[in-house]
Amino acid sequence: MAITGPEPSKILETKACIDAKKIRFEINKILMPNSMVGEFGIIRHPGAALAVPITQSGEVIILRQYRFACSRRILEFPAGTLEEGESPLESIKREVQEESGYSADRWDRLGEMLPCPGYSDETIHLFLARDLKKLGKKPDGDEDEDIEVLKMMPEKLNEIIASGRESLDGKTITAWFRACQILNKE
Fold it and tell me: How far is Cα 160 from Cα 108, in angstroms, rounded to an integer?
């Protein structure tokens, strides 16, 4: 089954918009492809990239990061918003260094995911990062980042996901599922 491409709706009128850091919220009157007209809120996002970093000894690098929107620390893979003019691969190479303190020599694409298609146009580009090297000095990241870098074997991560003991986000679970499909074939 082929992945379908965009089938844009037509914006008839923008009723309101609010710009915030990295996102824009719009309320639009929209003509849908099925001829229905309605008023919908949408979060516009420039896109993001995420990597599943795996060390040469097979350990997974994962972050425990504080997220203000849910007021808790969650386990997630290094990820970040695409900067203007930056490709997804360029973005994730930078983010892995800033957030984990590692660089990778081998990059495999894991596809894309749409985390919240009911109200956001965000696309997250997923990668598998391998042949990691620990950096001598971790580059400065975003000022608001509160991150603990963890290393664990894949079995431990699977156990954590299955147990529900830790909060994880959907992009992390999706990327891990796709990475395992590649890793288990090798």
Answer: 24
Backbone angles phi, psi at 160, to 5 degrees: -65, -45
Cβ(86)–Cβ(182) below 8 Å: no
Q: Which residue has the tokens 């580059």?
A: 139
Which of 118, 44, 129, 57 has its CA nearest to residue 95? 129
Question: In what helix (H) or strand (E) does residue 163 lie, and over which residues does it extend?
Answer: helix 154-163
Task: Please report the beta strands in 97-177, taking only residues with DSSP state E, as ranges in sequence order.
Answer: 102-113, 124-134, 147-152
φ, ψ for residue 56, nearest 5 deg: -65, -25
Report pTM: 0.91
Contact 148, 63 (CB under 8 A): yes
Residues paired with residue 27 on neighbouring β-strands, in sequence order: 16, 41
Q: 36 pLDDT exceeds 80?
A: yes
Alpha-carbon gap, residue 165 to 20, rounded angstroms? 33
Residue 115 and residue 121 in contact, taking contact as beta carbons nearer than 8 Å = no
